[in-house]
Amino acid sequence: MLPRVASACDDGFGMTEGSLSDRGKEGEKQVVLLIDDQAIVAEAIRRMLADQPDLELVHCADVARALPTAREVRPSVVLQDLVMPGADGFTLVRYFRADPQMENVPIIVLSSKEEPRDKSRAFELGASDYLVKIPDRIELLARIRAHVRSFTAQRERDEAFRALSELKVELEAKNVQLQLLTVTDGLTGLANRRHLDATLDLEWRRCMRERAPLALLLMDIDYFKKYNDAYGHPAGDACLQEVAGALKRSVRRPADLVARYGGEEFAVVLPNTPELGAVTVASALRMEVAALQLPHRGSDVASHVTLSLGVAALVPGPGASVAGLIAAADGALYEAKRAGRNRHAVAPPVPVPEPDAEVELAQAQPSVTPGE
Length: 372
Ligand code: GH3
Ligand code: MG
Known about the structure:
Elements: E1 6-7, E2 30-35, H1 39-49, E3 55-60, H2 66-73, E4 77-81, E5 83-84, E6 87-88, H3 89-98, E7 107-111, H4 116-125, E8 129-132, H5 137-183, H6 193-210, E9 214-221, H7 224-231, H8 233-250, E10 257-260, E11 265-271, H9 275-291, E12 307-314, H10 322-338, E13 344-346, H11 358-362, E14 367-368
Parallel strand pairs: 1-3, 2-3, 2-4, 4-7, 7-8, 12-13
Antiparallel strand pairs: 5-6, 9-11, 9-12, 10-11, 13-14
Helix pairs in contact: 7-8, 8-9
The structure holds 3'-deoxy-guanosine-5'-triphosphate and magnesium ion.
Residues 220-222, 224, 264 line the site of magnesium ion.
């Protein structure tokens, strides 16, 4: 199969069979773009490449059309004359090197003479090779093949690298998403129980090291079963989302964590917070939820949705445990419910078990604040 010479320019050589747009269909061929105004050179090179089925010669005789033609035919190597009417070949080399699409395409300069100064200037400007016209066929083919090989290998490496980088970015985004999913409650967007447990463990150890207080609030929507009964389950879900948003808005420190503890129960972890501070936060949470003024006709304590809260705080130390802190907050929540709901209760000092202290601790009662 003969290499086809496309008429990308008005070359006057009659080498016009085929059109540029047909070339893509032939797939694997590497385009050799020849830029030379001399018909004799073009014909000689056409003959040299004639029996090379994988090389396709595109000839451009008009230097003014060299760059647009190159952009269109996407050559794997350029053979370029240095002396052409109306243009300086060195300038064309510079243009090629400044063009984002052509900057890495090898350029073999075809010079009419072996001139060290021309040679050095051509290489300085970014030419890849220098041959004196008309080159020996074997040498020309060997040089073309070497340049095409290194260019296509580089292009494949670049493409593989780009694909890999895109994949990496995608994977990282997916990992972040996955990570978020594993720690987030789907309905409310708050931290889920697993995240709460991990945070409690972490903050427990941190506060123990720093001898700082750690507070936990457990809270529960009052008469939520009746809310669902009155307004339907989807409205119940929407109510949980509203309450979650109000809770999130009410805690301000970066280390504070608001989590969904169970169905209509929420938890807030407050590191470095003593009991007094935790009570302040508990009141703020209750007010913020009340301020939502979500109508609740099933409630016996208010006309809107309200919260009951249990507060527990301690300085973690030997003998105490996360489970003990949770149990204390839960006991206080139970006490807030028992005392009439829509209020908070504070757990008595969290028990640090000692052999003879159990009876005394079992008798400790939470202190409850009155509701609104
Ligand atoms: P109390 O004031 O004592 O807390 O009464 P309550 O009705 O809130 O408590 P109870 O534990 O009897 O009922 C909790 C209800 O919360 C039961 C269930 O229908 C509802 N619930 C739990 N999880 C969800 C949820 O994800 N969506 C909705 N819509 N309802 C939920
Ligand atoms: Mg409830």
